[in-house]
Structure formats: structure tokens, C-alpha cells
């Protein structure tokens, strides 16, 4: 490529970079969450169907791209250590939970404004600690999460609704040990969070 071609390429690159910077850019958004939820567990025989409760604190983050500081798109991941209660097994234990998925949202392009978004959750897991001889793990989670927030400069106060279904259950008890896709946990949660959207 000759010098004129290189110059044209450099001018094109700088123009595109400037246009991209004017329209938006990369962002990260760490957050602290508090989740409170309840659900239903469809166990196989010899176990009975059950209700569950899950609540506790967690951490999360979004990362992706913004367009004109109005539209944001990226990935959303969460990790928490809630307390998990199971009514039919009469257990209460600490758990480790995670999920992730793509997210899409809109916001007012000001330091004070409103934000709304939705996340399609493609995978997740809830793993309570063993209690009273019962060790259960709920895997292959999927679902969705919708939220809204009030942005105050680099801080956002948020409320989200989350619905998850975990299609595979591993259960080990004194009665039986099994892994099945016929036993599932369906959980609905409300999530309060404080997040910090930062443009890079």
C-alpha cells in the first residue's frame, strides 16, 4: 500500500474512532445485591414436593457497550451466598448460587435519570450445603430478570424481578441418591441492588 493509501486508512480509522466515542463506549457496572425469593421443588418419589425460600447478599457485574449513553448491551453475571430453606426435607443451610446471561437496557443520558433493562439467563446453579443428611444441588438454571433503577451520577439504586427454573437436581439422602431432570426447582425472587455504572 502506498503512502496515500496509508494516509486514507489512518484518516478513516480516526474518523470511526471519533464517531464511536461520540456515540458511546465500553462500560462496567459492579454491584452489591440482596435477594429474597421463594419457590417450589418437584421431587421424585420417595421424596415429597416442597416449597423453598432463599434470601441473602451477593455480588454481580455487568459489562458491555453503550450507544449514545442511552442503549446498553452486554453480559450480566451474579454470585451470591443465600440461606436456602426446604420445607419437605426440613433443611436450612447456606448455599452458593450463580447465574449469567446477556442483558439489554435503556437509560436517560444524564447524571440523574431512569434506567430499565432485561436479562435472559442462560445458565445458573444453586448449591446448598449438606444439612440433616441431605445434600441437594440444583443445576441447569435458566430464566429471565427485569429491572429498573434510578441513576445518581455513578451510582444506581435498582429493583429487579427474577424467575428461574433449575431443570436438573442432584440429591443425596439417607434414603436415596439420584440425579434427575424430572425434579426441578422453580424460584421467583425480588432483588435490591446498588450498582456503579462506569464508562471507560
Structure summarized in a few sentences:
The protein has 200 residues and is mostly beta strands.
Task: Give a structural overview.
This protein is about 10% helix and about 70% strand. With about 200 residues, it is mostly beta strands. Strand 2 and strand 3 (about 70-80) form a beta hairpin. The radius of gyration is 22 Å and the shape is elongated. The two termini are about 35 Å apart. Residues about 1-20 have low confidence and may be disordered.
Keywords:
disordered N terminus; twelve-stranded antiparallel β-sheet; 200 residues; mainly beta; 1 helix
Q: Note the main sheet.
A: 12 strands, antiparallel
User: What is the count of β-strands?
Assistant: 12
Average predicted confidence as pLDDT: 84
Q: Tell me, what's the shape?
A: elongated
Structural class: mainly beta
Low-confidence stretches: 2-22
**What is the terminal separation in angstroms?**
34 Å
Proportion of residues in β-strands: over 45%
Question: Count of helical segments?
Answer: 1
Topology (elements, then pairings):
Layout: H1 3-23, E1 26-42, E2 50-67, E3 71-80, E4 83-86, E5 91-107, E6 112-121, E7 123-128, E8 135-152, E9 155-172, E10 177-180, E11 184-195, E12 198-199
Antiparallel strand pairs: 1-2, 1-11, 1-12, 2-3, 2-4, 3-5, 4-5, 5-6, 5-7, 6-8, 8-9, 9-10, 9-11
